[in-house]
Every structure is written in C-alpha cells, then in structure tokens.
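Retry 2 of 3 after timeout on previous attempt. Resubmitting structure tokens to design endpoint.
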C-alpha cells in the first residue's frame, strides 16, 4: 500500500529546513564541549602555521609530527583527545581521514603510550577533619559563599561544572545549579539539575537531597540559608556569590581551597574542587552507605564511582587477615 504525501508549494521551504538542520547539527556537542574542541583545533592550526604544513587533510607525516609536538607538554590521554578532536575537524570539513588509519600513526601513538605511561594522577579527597578546620578558619561575612560551596560540594558529590560557572559571564542555566533549582524542605533541601555530564538529552531530571545537621558547623543546609540571607540573587542566577556579589567561578574556588589546605600544611597541588566529590563519596562509603546510593547521589552512570573511593590500608588489611585465617 502506497501513501501519497502532497506538499503545497512553499517558496523557500528547502532553505528553511536546511537552516533548521544546520542549527540542529550545531548541537552535536554541548556548549562546553564545543569550547574545548575549538581550543584543540586552534592549537593544531597554530602548529600547521608554524611548521608550514597543510592543515586539511593532514598527511600521516604531519599527524606524527603533531603527536610528537603534543607529547612535549601533554599526557598520553590528552594527546589522544587532541587527535580525536583533529579527526572530528576533518569529518566536519569532509576531509579525508585516511592518515588516522595509517600504521605509522598508530605506532607513534603506541610508542608515546609506552614512553609517557598512562598513570592517572587523581586529586586527594577532602576529609571531614579538613572541612572542620577550613570552616572554622573562615570569616562568615566575607566567605559565606565559599563555605556554602565547600559543604554543598562535599555532601552532594556534584561535579564542578554543575556546581559553579566557568566564568563570571558564562552561566549555563540548565547545567549549572541556580537559585531556583534549590528548594528547602522540612528535612533539609532538595537540589534539581536538568543537565549534567551524563544527562545530555533531557532524558531525566536529577534530584539531590541534602539533610540538615543540627548544631554542626558542617551543615550544608544552614550554610545555604546563611548565604542566601546575605547575598540576594535572581532565581535564574548562580547560587554561590562572593562578598562583592559576583558569581564564584570554578577557578576562583579552586584557588581559595588550595590556600586553605596549604594553611593546614597539605600540598595544595593535590587538591581542587574535585576533591570534594571524591571526599564526599569516600566519606559516605566509609560511613556504610550502599554503593548504589552513592552512585545515584553523585550521578555516576557506571561503576566509575569505584575509582573515586579511597579505601584506607587499614580496611584492606582485613582481606589479608581473612585469607590468612582461612589457611589450615
């Protein structure tokens, strides 16, 4: 059975549809991913300008030289990301990607993998003891936004991109927490996110609960209430503000946290906003929280959550003791 579809004459319809398709294709990457890709592409084009190489399509020789150039300053995993971005640039411009399949290119990457290694240096987790010392050293009036960021980040395991904007002028209303996304409840507060690293296509809404901790300086709900009372902002604006009523950015918070941990005689190199996510998840696990609840709270969609958990040696010694006790 055939169904005839008849379109009325519509001058300019093709142009309209083409424009809509182009706009949809531009959403292939998220906003932050586009910024990352543009930065990676600029690095490659600058390399080609400096070496007088043809940028598109690149030859296997050019690609190997570019990999060697990247290897001077980047880790192996970052090199792979840059090469992947370059491959995407070729596809977007309908350029041949044959060079990426050449044996010499794959051999070069494999060689640098052996030379550089793939050891991943992860940030250390922030502990409850550190939190108490940091909060105790803060001036409430000037640092209420930073304290609230610290405690909310620890107890929600939120990613930095969901917690804080990248810059003062760039605020992702769907992907970064805003004032209107927080509702206070009898038990504490409920946070709502509609876009995260694992929620890219509006497939679900992430709700993250916070519970009040009465009479504790580490209560995240109290920290939020105090901060909101002192720093007013629109419902669609950033949650965390500094003493000048400017949004606290990820870089600003990282610098502040590093100063605080250094004052406690810890190496600031090992700490960042990511330390809150790892520290909160580790504390929850050591407190007996089921792994699946930690995974849900932190918005992990895979068992990658296991990488975030720091298990003390004293806990792992139990394995050795159990094995030893089972030997006849």
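Retry 2 succeeded. Sequence:
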């Amino acid at each position: 059975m055939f169904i005839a579809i008849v379109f009325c004459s519509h001058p300019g319809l093709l142009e309209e549809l083409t424009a809509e398709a182009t706009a949809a294709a531009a959403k292939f990457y998220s906003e932050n991913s586009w910024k990352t890709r543009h930065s990676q592409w600029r690095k490659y084009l600058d390399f080609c300008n400096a070496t007088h190489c043809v940028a598109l399509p690149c030859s296997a020789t050019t690609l190997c030289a570019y990999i060697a150039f990247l290897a001077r300053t980047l880790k192996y995993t970052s090199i792979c990301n840059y090469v992947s971005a370059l491959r995407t640039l070729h596809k977007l411009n309908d350029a041949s990607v044959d060079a990426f399949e050449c044996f010499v290119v794959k051999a070069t990457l494999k060689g640098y993998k052996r030379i550089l290694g793939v050891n991943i240096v992860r940030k250390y987790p922030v502990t409850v003891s550190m939190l108490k010392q940091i909060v105790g050293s803060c001036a409430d009036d000037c640092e209420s936004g930073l304290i609230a960021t610290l405690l909310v980040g620890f107890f929600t395991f939120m990613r930095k991109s969901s917690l804080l904007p990248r810059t003062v002028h760039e605020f992702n209303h769907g992907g970064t927490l805003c004032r209107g996304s927080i509702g206070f409840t009898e038990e504490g507060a409920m946070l709502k996110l509609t876009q995260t690293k694992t929620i890219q296509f509006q497939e679900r809404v992430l709700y993250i609960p916070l519970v009040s901790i009465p009479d504790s300086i580490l209560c995240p709900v109290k920290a939020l209430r105090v901060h909101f009372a002192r720093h007013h902002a629109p419902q669609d604006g950033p949650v965390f503000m500094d003493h000048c009523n400017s949004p606290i950015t990820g870089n600003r918070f990282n610098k502040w946290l590093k100063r605080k941990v250094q004052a406690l005689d810890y190496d600031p190199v090992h700490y960042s906003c990511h330390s809150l996510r790892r520290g909160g998840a580790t504390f929850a696990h050591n407190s007996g929280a089921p792994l699946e609840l930690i995974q849900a709270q932190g918005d992990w969609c895979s068992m990658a959550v296991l990488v975030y958990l720091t298990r003390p040696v004293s806990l792992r010694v139990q394995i050795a003791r159990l094995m030893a006790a089972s030997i006849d």
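Attempt log closed. Residues 155 and 280 are 6 Å apart (CA to CA).
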